[in-house]
Design a protein that fits this description.
There is one protein chain. This protein has about 260 residues and is an alpha+beta fold. The chain folds into two domains: about 1-125 and about 240-260, no CATH class; about 125-235, Alpha-Beta Plaits, CATH 3.30.70. The chain contains seven helices and 13 strands. A hairpin with a 4-residue loop joins strand 1 and strand 2 (about 20-30). This is HIRAN domain-containing protein.
Length: about 260
Amino acid sequence: MTSTRTLFVTWFSPEQRSSVMVGRLVHHRDDGEEFYEFRYIRSCLEAVKQGFQPFLAFPELHRSYRSRQLFPFFSNRVIPTSRPEFIPFVRTLGLNPTAADAMDILGRSGGRRETDRVELIAAPVRDESGSYTTHFLLRGVGHFPEAEERIEKLATEEPLFCRVVALSDANPKAVMLWTTDAQAIGFMPGYLTHEVAALLHTGRAVHVSVEQVNPPPISLHYRVLCRLTAQWPAGVAPFHEAQFEPLDAGHAAATGTPESCV
């Protein structure tokens, strides 16, 4: 049986004060054989204009990198299972510590480090009903100190409402989340803004609910885990526009660009 799981890699642009998708990490599994593949994507070219330079682990923009093991560039962003904080941390992500693998953990945590501007995100996954589902950590909680008490009272599966707002010239569009009693509590991650705003603009239902609340001393970044479910228009899938395709994939194949598999 063939299956793939995809995580997109974003880079935070200091110039634009926003994140740009620059690559994608795919875990391929086929009849017991598996490997990981990293490729830069077309939107990476925009990031280059803003100062992005290829990661040292993947220096060539047009190359397909393959490995039977998860690349250290990504595996080093996951807490080792031997560390005492592994189990409680994975639980804050709403995952089962005995079942979750590195791709699961990176897709929920983002794999962020203080030493770079990289974050990984999981694309929404389609279910049998045709709906797409993903989980995300509520952003900007610290900007709503008046909502702290309300956040502590959030219940699992409690619905949240979306509203597209303009924050600034640098961030003209954001999706703010509200409780049913009209309390603003934070924002949807920027990487979902374009997709969700487009759905809302066309009148499509976007269902967001509370998956899990992690009380203090858990940091604000991990305070609220949310679940999003929505149906994209027929023939359309999230993150499937041209800018998310591998960078010059056709050119690389035609010229015999080398691949690595270690």
